[in-house]
Fold:
Amino acid sequence: MKKGFMIAFIAAILTACLLPIGANIFGYTAVNRENRPLAREPQIVGRDGLNLEFPSDFDDYWQDHFGLREELVTAFHAATLAIFNDTLNEKVVAGKDGFLFYSETLNDYTGLETMSDADILRAANVIRQISEYAEANGAKFVFSVAPNKNTVYPEYMPSRIKRTSAVSNHTRLYAALSDAGVETLDLAALLTEHKGDGLLYYQQDTHWNQRGALIAYNAIMKLIMNGEGYETYSAAVPHDETGYYGDLHNFVLPAEESTLPYSEYGIAANYMLDEGARMERDINFGTRSEENAEKSLLLYRDSFGEALIPLLSTNLGRAVYSQEFPYNLELNGESYGMIMIELVERNIPNLLTGAPLMQASEKQLPTDAVSVSCTANAQKRSGFTQLYGSIAAYPAAERIYIEVACADGAVRVYEAFPMNASGDADPAWESASGYLLTLPEGIEGEVSGAYIG
Structure:
């Protein structure tokens, strides 16, 4: 009997191991529901000759494409959820009442590894310069953070994950922006205020649902329209639907049908895409509508902005959306009534990973500015000259002014972003003493001095 059990056990293990191979032989094709590109089938010999990375490339490919992958992944995570109330998936945290949370939001939730006060001030410096640039070009500027789901719904986080008393990046950044005179839209406070209306986020997705998006939409339109004369959709009555496969659901239960209800308002979109634009692929695209024809918006967005597009585009004469990062303020020659940044809370630290492409503002050197030593380099980006380097350590609250000896013989002073640039075309954070500026179109020159003040 013991021998029979061992034979049956070994047969079961072999069957489990051979099932994926057998499924592939009989034509199994992986379904991508994880909102990421699956690894491509590697080649032993490519255009550049022998592919020395083939073993690791094949391992990546097999992990994404082995037979019955979705079914086996789903069975494993369904078991761990049932037994441990844990996904054992590094990307997903299992919460209460069927809620799933994105693990990359844990530092914000717990208060661990928050940004330093100095980096918060530098991030606020970056946003302030964008704000001043927008307003100098006739546009109202607003900065907003789309809150992590567990910022709005901490009560659904697992009790085992404890919070510290640390003040969040979001709260400190908004305080710094207030001190800098930058207008902000506090979506976290607004959504928290409306929690009684019903769920505002999908239970098994990182993003707000249509009810949450409508709250954000109305707050944005209120700013654009000075509080009146726009469609609020207050008469729209939602109904419950099922079948939404959220990104977190697809990470852990890709083969399981979603039965959790979500609110659907049935709002019809009515706008025109710019000729040749492809919303699903283009990182920059625009729309036009006959509603509020004189109103225009440039929205720098991430995935949270996707649910806002049909609402804003239907009710604004002109809307342009950009997912470029670092932010590109030189997208086109258009002018806008309002320029807005929507940035998900977990990505606030990214504000210091790349300087926006933006023509620097010429400044009067403050009388109390202090001269400091500096290094200087130059690079081209999108037809503009960028000057970058490092200066002696300086207080984060101070502004950096770079004196430029221009090719036309003039000496001009520009404010720089508080970050360095790599030798590559794309700026990247390197040190606290870095600086970078983009010279205005038609201006060429070299750094002749650096100041803080």
Observations:
- The longest strand covers residues 445-452.
